[in-house]
Amino acid sequence: MTGPRLAYVINSLEGGGAALPVPAILGVLRGAGAQVRVLALTRRDGRAVPAMEAAGLDVVVREGGETDHLAAARWLTRELRGWGATHLWTSLSRATILGLLLGPHLGIPVIAWQHNAFLKPWNERILRMFQTRAAMWVADSRVVEELTAGRLAVPADRLVTWPIYAADPAMPQARAWQPGEVLRLCSLGRLHPAKGYDVLIAALARLREQGFRSPVPYEIAIAGDGAQGARLTALAAEAGIDELRLAGYATNPRGFLESRHLYLQPSRREGFCIAAHEALTAGLPVIASRVGELAFSVRPQVNGWLAEPDDPASLATALREALSAPEALTAMGRQARAQILDEYSQARFERTGRAIWSCLG
Q1: Among 26, 190, 195, 263, whose Cα sits 20 to 30 Å from the Cα of 249?
Q2: Each residue's pLDDT tens digit, 93-110
Q3: CATH code at 253?
C-alpha cells in the first residue's frame, strides 16, 4: 500500500513570496510520511525552481498564463488524476479557487493556505462562497488567521495557524557597524506599491526638509525588481534623495543582509513578511510598518522601530531615531536574532506542521 500523495498546488514559481518556504513546508510533510509533488499553474520567472529541485522536490510546471483558468483547471484535473493524489494543498488565491472547485469533485480533501493580508474583492467573494469545501484552512500568521475567520467566515474548528517561517541558526550574522563606516540600510522586496518604497522616499524627503543631518553617512539599497522601478527612481531624483539606490534582484539574499546594518520594511500591508524576519534572524534591527506579523515581531526600542503604515511622518521619526544612534544597532540586532531563533525555531515549525498533517490522517 502506498502512502498518502499530497499535491501542493501553487500559482507560480517566482523568487520570494509564497514560493520561498515551499521546500521547508514540504520537507515537514514528507517527514510525516506524505509523498509530495508541486504543481505550478504558471512559471513566471521560475526563480524558485532551483531551490525546490535542490530539496529533492518533484516539480511540474504548466505551460500557460495567469488568466487561462479553464485550461488551468483541465490541466490540474489531469495531473491530480494521473498522479493519484490523495490530498490537495493549495497556495494563493488562484490555486485555492481551482482546488476548492476540483477537489470535492475528484474526492480529494483540500487544505488551503492563506498568506495574503489583501484579497481582490472578487477573489474574496469566491473564496467565501466556497470556503466550506476545504477540509482545513491554514493561515501563515496570527493576523491572517483573524482575517480568514472574519472575511471568509471560516470556523475555528477548520482554521489553524502555521507560521510560514523557520529561522535558520546557520543564517550568517550581520557584521556590526563601526565608527567611521558608512551606515548601510537595506530592504528586500518587490518594487510594488504594497511594499511602500514611495513612502520611504517621502519620509527621507521630509527629513531633508526638516534640516535633519545624520551624524554618520548612510546609504540605502533596495534589492528587488518590479514594475515600480522607474517611478521610484524618478521620485527619489525629484526629492534629491541620492542616498538610495535600486540594487536589482538579490540572488544571494543572505549575503546581502550580512553586509548591512539596518533593515527597512515600509509596507502598506503584509501577511507574515519573510524578508523582514530573515533580516531579524541575521541580527539586523528592523524599521517596519505596523502591519501583519511585523506588528508582533518588531518590538520598539528592543529590536527595532514601528511606524504607522502609509505615513511618511511616522516613518521619518523612526529613521531619525535610528540614524541618530547607530552605536545602539548592534545590541538591538543581537536581541532580534535571539528572539526570532526562539520564537520561530525549526523544531516548533516542524511540530506545528506535523500536528496539522496528523489531523488530516
Answers
A1: 26
A2: 999 999 999 999 999 999
A3: 3.40.50.2000
